[in-house]
Amino acid sequence: MLVITIPKALREKLGDEASDSLVELLNKVYQRTKEDVIELAMDKFASKVADERVLIEKRVVDETARVEQKITDEVVKLDNKITSETTRLEKMIGEEVTKLEQKITSETSRLEKVISEEVTKLDQKITNETTRLEKMIGEEVAKLEQKITNETTRLEKMITDEVVKLRIEMKEEISKLRAEMLSHYASLIRWMFIFWIGQVGALIGILFAFFK
């Protein structure tokens, strides 16, 4: 803030009261002048800002139009490039698809031929193996049937022999028992019981031997 002072010589001539009044007046004039200067500066600044704003807005509009036009041109160029590249890629894809289809067809034919040959070989192998197994099974069945027949014959002969022996023994024992019954009835009953127990045991033994 500006400080106004009255020189000593002038203060002596004017006096203290007049000097103070003069200082007050000068301060008011200074304050008023300051306010007027500030107001004028603000008006000039506002006017300059408005002018600059108009210029900036015009420049923004012009620059926006230029950028939009440039963007439009670039979009058109890019669209044309995309169209051209798409056409090229579609053609390339079509050619590659055709080549791939031909390759698939050729490979499929080759694989079908290979599969057919392998199936024929496998079918022949299965036929040969089946024939071999059937022959082997037939031979084994014939051997088993022969073995069963032989074993059956042997067992039948064994049973027949044992039955004959048993019948002979039974007849002999019956004859003995009949002779002894005349004099030893009580003893005969006891021995007859023992005899039948022995015969049943022998028969059970024969049957066990047969079923083993």
List the helices and strands and how they pair.
Elements: H1 8-181, H2 185-211
Helix pairs in contact: 1-2
Organism: Candidatus Chryseopegocella kryptomonas
Protein name: DUF1640 domain-containing protein
Keywords: Membrane, Transmembrane, Transmembrane helix
Describe the structure.
The chain is an all-alpha fold and 212 residues long. The protein has one domain (8-211). It is 95% helix and 0% strand. The chain has two helices and no strands. Helix 1 crosses helix 2. The chain is elongated, with a radius of gyration of 70 Å. The protein starts with 7 loop residues before the first helix and ends with a helix. The mean pLDDT is 79. It comes from Candidatus Chryseopegocella kryptomonas. The chain crosses the membrane at residues 188-211. Keywords: Membrane, Transmembrane, Transmembrane helix. This is DUF1640 domain-containing protein.
Keywords:
mainly alpha; elongated; transmembrane helix; DUF1640 domain-containing protein; 2 helices; transmembrane; membrane
Q: What general outline do the C-alpha atoms trace?
A: elongated
- The tally of helices reads 2
Major beta sheet, specifics? none
User: Could you tell me the mean pLDDT?
Assistant: 79
Q: What share of the residues does DSSP label as strand, in percent?
A: under 5%
**Strand-and-helix sequence, N→C?**
HH
In short:
Keywords: Membrane, Transmembrane, Transmembrane helix. With 212 residues, the chain is mainly α.
